[in-house]
Amino acid sequence: MGTAILIFVFGLVIGSFLNVCIHRIPSDRLSIHFPHRSLCPNCQSLIQAYDNIPIISFLLLKGRCRNCHTRISVTYPLVELTTAVTFLFLFYHFGLTLEMVQGALLVSLFIPIAVIDTKWMIIPNIIILTGIITGLAIITLMAILKQDVTYLLKHILWASIGSITIQAIAILGRFVFRKESMGFGDTKLMFLIGLFLGRWQSILTVLIVAAFTGSIIGLTLIISKSKRPNSEIPFAPFLTIAATLDFIWHNQIWTTYLKLIGWY
Predict the structure, then answer these.
(1) Dist. CA 190–CA 222, nearest whole Å
(2) CB atoms < 10 A from the CB of 39, how many?
(3) What is the DSSP letter of 39?
(4) What is the pLDDT of residue 28?
(5) Concatenated DSSP letters for 121-153?
(6) What whole-number distance in Å separates Cα of residue 81 and Cα of residue 84?
(7) I need a labelling partner for 190 at 20 to 30 A (CA). Which of 58, 113, 141, 209 fits?
(8) 51 vs 72, 207, 258, CA distance in Å?
């Protein structure tokens, strides 16, 4: 129980840092490093440490800035809570293993990517590059522990094939629809996903699930008139959700699929 509480609190702290990344990375004027302290986006007043406690400060302040009383975006506590709950779930699912660390790292990359793409329709290179470097490091470590160099090569191979596949889909979409269907950021994200998952079945699952859920959400937004038919819809959130589901439940998803088509 004590370990679970520590992991949940650690997830809250990481979620708080992810909020900093989400707010600052898209801006050329702000750095995620010291000495830039947290400021209210509206009045630019310095946010004190006691007002920067994950979840708790948001509740105590009733979702408003202490100084100007402007509403604080609900994104902040949602990111913190999502990160903490996911970390806790990974702990109960995998235990204290390298797989859990790998999953926690993946989630810590996916959350800012999904939120930033939703808000600004961009996938920052710095997050992708950080993910590739750390992903290669942890996969290399796992290959060493397994004493299997093909483990690392397989992950790099499927990362490359995944990114090539989604870029081919983007080119085809541009030709068919006469407009940009997916950005190059999605291609880079697919490389990152393929690097962590390292299976052709996972690449197929992620593309199918992301395309299906993206289509459903897109149609829902159009029908509800929240989006116009020709509006751009960010694809990164659907890719990241699909990849997270596959990372956790790959065997169950693939077995269910094979049963549905009668191959199991």
Answers:
(1) 26
(2) 13
(3) B
(4) 62
(5) S---HHHHHHHHHHHHHHHHHHHHHHT-HHHHH
(6) 5
(7) 141
(8) 12, 41, 51
Residue 6 host element (H or E): helix 2-24
Using the predicted structure, report yes or no on whether residue 6 has a pLDDT greater than 90: yes
Residues in the chain, how many?
264
* CA distance readout (Å), 121 to 31, 66, 167, 184, 207: 20, 31, 17, 11, 19
CA 101 – CA 197 distance, rounded (Å): 14
pLDDT digits (tens, 9 = 90+) for 117-144: 999 999 999 999 999 999 999 999 989 9
* Every domain of the chain and the residues it spans: 1-95, 97-264
Beta-carbon contacts of 52 under 8 Å, excluding residues fewer than 6 positions away, are: 16, 38
Instruction: Give the residue carrying structure tokens 């699909």.
Output: 242
Query: Residues 189, 165: contact at Cβ < 8 Å?
Result: no
Write down the residue that tokens 């897109």 correspond to: 218
Could you report the per-residue pLDDT of 187-208, keeping only the tens digit for each? 999 999 999 999 999 999 999 9
User: Which amino acid, residue 250?
Assistant: H
**What does the pLDDT read at residue 154?**
94
Contact 192, 158 (CB under 8 A): no
- Residue 52: the pLDDT is 83
Q: How far apart are CA 102 and CA 123, in angstroms?
A: 21
Rounded distance, CA 202 to CA 195, Å? Answer: 11
Residue that is written with structure tokens 């800012």 in the block: 112
What is each CA distance from 5 to 1, 10, 15, 78, 80, in whole angstroms?
Answer: 6, 8, 15, 18, 15
Contact present, 88 and 109 (Cβ < 8 Å): no
d(CA 224, CA 238): 20
